[in-house]
Amino acid sequence: MNHHVLVAVLAIVCLSHVSGACQANEPLAIVADFEGASVRDVAIDQQERSVSFMPGGDPQRGWPCWWYFRIDGIGIDEEITLRLRGSSATIEKQKPLSAFWAMPAQATYSIDGKSWRHTARGERQGEWMTYNLKPNAPSVYVAWGPPYTPKTAERFVRETGKRSSHATATELCRSRDGRTVPMLHVREGQRESKDRFGVWVQARQHAWESGSSWVAQGFAQWIIGDDPSAAWLRQHADIYVIPIMDVDNTATGNGGKNALPHDHNRDWSPKPHWNETMAAQRMVLDLIADDRMDVFLDLHNPAPGDPCFFYILPEELIKEPMIGLRNRFIDLAYAKIRQIKPMIPMSNKPKITGVNYHPLWRQISANWVSMNGNADTVSLCLETAWNLPSSTTAGYQAVGASLAATVDEYLAERPELP
């Protein structure tokens, strides 16, 4: 056989047997040196093309359930396997966190670190959860859920401020580690502040709950949009949106929840530990002093099997008209969120965060605002489901838009401020 013909034949054989000796795959490699990354105990099987790992994170800085990293060295049209097990780090009661907090039914992945998709459903085998994906790219980012980092928040707030004449990009404060805490302030027209409703929306007091930041972004996008109802809300309210409260743990890939000495959502006390809580509390108190703390919304993600729902105080701890107004708001939100397509389950049965919920129940943000707010303050914690096929960036933002439309409809029913 002619030498040139032989080379050509070998080339064809190599191209048709990518996994064979003629074209060996590049070694898989793990990268976790970027904002929000978290992984530990990595083991790579180069022959099986699988990556075994557990969530990273310092248990002193919150539940170790968040994971996020990049895999390099993937071959064209190659399927890789993720093998996840729960963190072995001990937490409050000196035992590991239950693995189901770290194991979404579908993992999240991205080729560019911007657009996020779900893998196929994982398969649970004993202590392991296995996900298979074929990214069709040499590198892929994989995560517990769609990441939303402090840089994402900064970019969104900054670009929204530039794009909308009604939005001001600002800063709530600097964190204990010196990071900026981005905040968006939205209002339209010349109506004075004393004649405006006060609306406060904050997310991510627990750093691992990334979906809540996407809900906050969806809320902000609706209120700066072209809907006439959004224009009415801008003209009649001061609206503050903070996409990430716990920026330090979000940036460093820690869980945040139950961090020591306590997490941000247990910090609403006379002497807050966290700078973000201190700054938010100060601004909320100003709204209360002006008798216009009308709607306070704290955004979270719940347990794996939960639908969307609100947390509330028991009725014996608050008075009318707060009870009736709160119930009206919940009814409006339930009606709107359950209409989202594809469906995001929404429960109209709130859960209680009173005396038996947590030793620091009085210092939980929504509780604190209810107990210290105005007589007509509506203060709620919305838990948005994270373990569903619809728990995507689009799904989360749809919940946020529905929540913003709820605020508009609710306030439109209220008598205007004098």
Automatic annotation (TrEMBL):
Domain of life of the organism encoding this protein: Bacteria
SUPFAM superfamilies: Zn-dependent exopeptidases
Signal peptide range in chain numbering: 1-24
Keywords for this protein: Carboxypeptidase, Hydrolase, Protease, Signal
Pfam family of the protein (one): Peptidase_M14
PROSITE patterns: PEPTIDASE_M14 (PS52035)
UniProt KW Metal-binding keyword: no
Protein name: Zinc carboxypeptidase
Record-level GO BP terms: proteolysis
Residues forming coiled coils: none
Keyword Signal: yes
Molecular function terms from GO: metallocarboxypeptidase activity; zinc ion binding
InterPro entries per the UniProt record, alphabetical: Cytosolic_carboxypeptidase, Pepdidase_M14_N, Peptidase_M14
Record-stated family: Belongs to the peptidase M14 family.
Biological source species: Stieleria marina
Residues in Peptidase M14 domain copies: 146-418
